[in-house]
Amino acid sequence: MRVSPLRVAMVAPVAQRVPPARSGSVETVTALLIDGLVARGHDVTVFATASSITRGRLHAIYEHGYHDDASMWPWELCELFNLTAAVERADSFDLIHYQAEYTPMSLAFSRLTSVPVLQTVHHVPTQPEVTLWSRYPEAPFIAVSQAQADLLADLNVVATIHHAVDTATLSFQSEPDDSLLFLGRFTAGKGVLESIEVARRTNRRLILAAAENDYFREVVAPLVDGQQIVYAGEVEQAGKATLLGKARALLYPLQEAESFGLVLGEAMACGTPVAALDCGAVRELVDKGVTGGVFSSLDALVDGLPDVMALDRARVHARALDRFSPDRMVDAHIEVYMKLAGRARRTERTA
């Protein structure tokens, strides 16, 4: 896509560095977007921690993130100061894009500057949240899935853009091991207990990979036997790619809806099919019978798991490259940026 260069302020979360050393879907996707914009000749200033690694021009007011430093609280104030640093320099940009880790506090600045302030939220918003955000009905949002866009129906959703995965580091594995994989936070909503149940009912080995937390220690750890149910800990990016590529299938039995589910695309990019429950954005991301299975119940998932594991891994990989490539995501964002920046310029000329 050939367009005039834009001056973009990309406000990343300051919970941790961009990209993350381990887990962190928001930071991972933001890093891919920044690098893609710079590769196309756009001038991107990144507001993130000083520990971040980016092709953009880094502006940092914190050395590291509040996930690594308990003294950096309240976290809301850390995020607010990072965002404010971009707004204070608004005249230097054509657009400010706020990647909201938790809440789009950027809305409060959208009427204080003539530069467009664009919001992307990365969670499933509740109706009270959307009602509060609707005090700024003109503020533009990007939804990360149609499932999320439906929840943001009362707001100004200017585009729905699926996340990308780092296809350069997630290599295709044609010969997997015989194990299943759960990769995600240890919470009840992620379905880790259901994944363990699937492994036991199908008599298959299951690897659990995520950071240890209270839920793991109190609920999950007693079920880990080191043989059939194995805990691998929280892995770095290279280790994650290896685990994803070696799995026969990724289990994703969500109990609570999610706005996207980056691990689905990451698994597919390695050629690994997905067995998931029909929840949140899953049906948008998994092509049934091609890249995995989408099931209405855990019983159905258990029954359908052999068919999922039998899917053509080369076809799974090829479909992931088409659907979750960084180029696609970057091009879609540039289109939105150009429209918003052009509209702002026309408004300024009229004024």
Helical content, roughly? 25-40%
Side-by-side strand order of the widest sheet: 3-2-1-4-5-6-7
* Fourth CATH level, the homologous superfamily of the largest domain: Glycogen Phosphorylase B
Query: How would you state the average pLDDT, rounded?
Result: 95
What's the level 1 CATH class of the largest domain? Alpha Beta
Uncertain spans: none
- If classified by CATH, what would the architecture of the largest domain be? 3-Layer(aba) Sandwich
Annotation field: number of helices: 12
Q: Which secondary-structure class do the elements indicate? A: alpha/beta
Name the shape in a single word: globular
Strand content of the residues, in percent? 15-25%
Radius of gyration: 21 Å
Order of helices and strands: EHEEHEEHEHEEHEHEHEHEHEHHH
How many structural domains in the coordinates? 2
Measured distance between first and last alpha carbons? 31 Å
CATH topology of the largest domain: Rossmann fold
- The total of beta strands comes to 13
Q: Please describe the biggest sheet, giving its number of strands, its sense, and whether it closes into a barrel.
A: 7 strands, parallel
